[in-house]
Amino acid sequence: MPVISVEKDLDLLTITIVAEFAAPLRRLWDAYTDPRQIERFWGPPTYPATFLRHDAFTGGRSVYKMTGSEGDELYGCWEWMSVQAPNAFEVADSFADAMGVSNTDLPTTRMSFAFEAMGSGSRLVTTSRFDSLEQLEQLLEMGMFEGAREAMSQIDTVLADLSIFAAHRVMEAQILSDTQVRVARVIRGPVEQVWRAHNDADLMKQWLLGPDGWTMPICEIAAKVGDSYRYEWENEGGGDRFGFTGELLEAEAPCRAVTTEAMIGMGFPATLNELTLTPVEGGTLLSLVITYANLEQRDAVLATGMTDGMETSYARLEGILALAGG
Q1: Does residue 159 sit in the same domain as residue 188?
Q2: What residue numbers bound the domain in which 272 lies?
Q3: Is 8 in the same domain as 120?
Q4: Cα separation values, 183 from 68, 88, 172, 308, 311, Å
Q5: In the chain, pLDDT over 70 holds for what percent of residues?
Q6: Is the pLDDT reported for residue 286 higher than 90?
Q7: 3-state DSSP call for residue 239?
């Protein structure tokens, strides 16, 4: 059990939980900033979490749901107030609806996470702050304290399971809901270089090609929010050609970009693509949450083996970044 102390201060309106782990500081930090990892312990065992969005940067947001054994879902969201990687971050944690909109009828908790290296392990001090004694007591009555202890008891397993999140693993797809899929991969290279590789047409034409034998004759970048983009690929052998177009809806360089995406010449509904880049040990975690119009579209796209082509492209990008770094 990693929790070594819990202190309730009714005068300061805080609850402080201290936990210690037999894992390096950076490993513990990454467990909280990688959505694939935090969702394995953020919810208690009876209400496991799924993170639909997770921005580990100041001004970002996270949206998560916790699903009970009967299929009931509870939603929450974070507003990232500050980030000082890998030592501290602070969020405002609120209840939310299924769209990720904060529920102002229930209390919002301001939570600070302080990470400290100690010997061969690390320590985490989590302090929850409340606006009033009534809010503190309300959340305690709702089981906040017990849920937090149960959730944190799961972190040791995640920290020990290095193989699942190792940087050498390839692009993988995870189903989040009937209409959402998250694909993720650690790319060996700094966040700034990975961001540039997604926003420089000359670079994109070198790596965003999928399997060998394809070229990218058209790469029109959306330079600012509201701009449209257009990408087209052509088989070097001739004949085959396809492409995508869409609009840039949000951009927070070098961390997050949101676009629509529709296949040129097809009647399929456009998807919503949310790209997040997070610095982790070993490089940059690329997380892409794709929202489809319906279950049928989601399954049809997954059946194409889309991650295979993505993996080939990102492996090619790693080679380019390695040469640039050398």
Answers
A1: no
A2: 172-325
A3: yes
A4: 24, 27, 5, 11, 10
A5: 98
A6: yes
A7: coil
